[in-house]
Amino acid sequence: MNTSLTRRLFIHTVCAATLCGVSSSFAAEDARTFELRIYTTHEGKLPDLLSRFRDHTCQLFEKHGMENIGYWVPIEKDDGADNTLLYIISHKSRDAAKASWSAFSKDPEWQAAAKASEVNGKILAKKPESIFLKATDYSCPIQPGLGKAERVFEMRTYTTPEGKLDALHKRFRDHTTGLFTKHGITNIGYWTPTDAEQDAATKLIYVISHPSKEAGLKSFAQFKADPDWIAAKKESEKGGPLTLQPNGVKSIYMKATDFSPIR
Questions:
Q1: Which of 9, 24, 114, 137 could staple 29 via S-S, CB 3.0–4.6 A?
Q2: Residue 178 CB contacts under 8 Å (≥ 6 apart), including other chains
Q3: What is the mean pLDDT of residues 40-45?
């Protein structure tokens, strides 16, 4: 890779780091245990689920040592706009997570709230999906709070061929996150699963934000046409693509709930 390109990519990475809240490099790796949970409700029950989280669940999570990070509902019907809640919380450790969930489930206040919320029928159509995660070493420090303006979020999941995850991390660390910033995409957080049965060796999950879905699609079009990205992608894929083809990248555009710490 030529010197000029390397210098430009370094500058983009420094700019991304600055926007993440550090001056010249990404912050030290976040050692917390994160948990992505996905809830699917029966038809018409999503408002009841959101009310339960708004009025009871989030506060009880904090009571039992779990930190609320972000809560989102998909924008598109095909992604679950009418029946899906996705959220990320954090724990001090995996053992702490186990203890917190146990204490939460036994809390009389939670049991009463759950019972009251389901007087007209069960809310969830199936058992919640839970994925324990660890932050990558290039993930921005998680910063709950409002964005500077209205925005939407995007959760993207990348699945790599066996043995390619480290190369994907390197590309994100050295190039992608900085180029995202260049093209108006805000980095929120980057994680990998911790359990082998949940594809720990082949999966990257991350959340970014855009002013709108339309802006996000435009930013990605500009990103993909950027000569720096084209060169970095070509260099990184000399041994083959870093994501499975053709379905190794999945995207869900989301809106934050009114009770989400990150909005």
A1: 137
A2: 9, 11, 12, 13, 14, 15, 16
A3: 98
